[in-house]
């Protein structure tokens, strides 16, 4: 189960990936659970990207509400 902070971070990855601090500890958990991936940009920067399983989690929660 995701913590509230991890779930909020997952929502941020979906809606505002360029605004996330890549040093957030929640990103490590989301990466380990394969809910997100890190995309390598041409500039050399990385950006978090919602993975299929991460999208499934968000869709499941949306159906519950």
Shape: globular
Q: What Rg do the Cα atoms give?
A: 12 Å
Structural category is alpha+beta
What number is the mean pLDDT? Answer: 94
Number of helices: 3
In what order do the strands lie side by side in the largest sheet?
A: 1-2
What is the end-to-end distance? 18 Å
User: How many domains is the backbone divided into?
Assistant: 1
Q: What is the makeup of the main sheet?
A: 2 strands, antiparallel
Strand content: 15-25%
Helix content: 40-55%
Strand segment tally: 2
Low-confidence residue ranges = none
Order of SSEs = HHEEH
Describe the structure.
This protein is of the alpha+beta class. The chain has one domain. A two-stranded antiparallel sheet has the order 1-2. A hairpin with a 5-residue loop joins β1 and β2. α1 packs across α2. The longest helix has 13 residues. The radius of gyration is 12 Å and the shape is globular. The chain starts with a helix and ends with a helix. The model has no long low-confidence stretch (mean pLDDT 94).
Descriptive keywords:
65 residues, alpha+beta, two-stranded antiparallel ribbon, 2 strands, 51% helix, 15% strand
SSE topology sketch:
Elements: H1 4-15, H2 25-32, E1 36-40, E2 46-50, H3 52-64
Antiparallel strand pairs: 1-2
Give me a quick take on this structure.
The chain has 65 residues and is of the alpha+beta class. 51% of the residues lie in helices and 15% in strands.
